[in-house]
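Write out this protein's structure.
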Amino acid sequence: MSGTSFATPVAVAVAAFMIGYVRKNRPRYVEWCIRPQTFSGMKKLFRMMTEPRDSYDWVNLLGHFNTHKESKIIQDIEDALNI
C-alpha cells in the first residue's frame, strides 16, 4: 500500500538515466570527489532533483530538466559531486 513496489523500479530508471547523462555530458567524472554511480553519488544526484511535497521529498526528474537550462543542470551535477 505504500507504493514501494512501484517506486523501486522508477528510482532505478532515474538512476540509470542520470548515470548515462553524466557520462555523456561530463566524461571526466573520474576526477570528481564522488563518482555518480556510487551510493553517495546517486544520493547527491537524487537530492539535487528533490522538491518538498507535503511530508516527503519528491524526486522530480522531468521537472528539474524542464525548468533549468542544460548549463545549470551540468553545474548542479558538478556541484553535487565535487563536495
